[in-house]
Amino acid sequence: MKTIKGNRVLxxxxxxxxxxxxxxxxxxxxxxxxxxxxxxxxxxxxxxTKITGQKGEGTITLAKAFSRFEDVREEISKGRDPRATIIxxxxxxxxxxxxxxxxxxxxxxxxxxxxxxxxxxVVTQDYPFSFTPSDMIPLDQIQEE
Length: 145
Hints:
Layout: E1 15-19, E2 22-23, E3 27-43, E4 46-63, H1 70-77, E5 84-90, E6 101-110, E7 124-131, E8 136-140
Antiparallel strand pairs: 1-2, 1-5, 3-4, 4-7, 5-6, 6-7, 6-8
């Protein structure tokens, strides 16, 4: 088994995110997950599973520096369903071979809007979203050398 040194573990310090081509410099976190939907299938006495679909969800966390996504909320209030594309990039200078991991996520639909402010605290805002997993494309991957 190959040994990995601690400096090769990626740091989110270098993460960047673009929303519809616009770099969101105040992004502090992005989490993305694809959930596989399965149904039980009985095969004799065994219960196995069958994939029946998949669902994509995530959350963007921004440090409050601007009024973001109000235009999207207003479009939804008018009965329209705007969709977006996210590019998420992680390029740590210590990554193996200085490589980059980057994903394009299409058909992104923001699903919650609101705010929470607290005196004496740095303000952040979370924006949950959904997407179709088939619209999540790896653009760059970090490979072993």
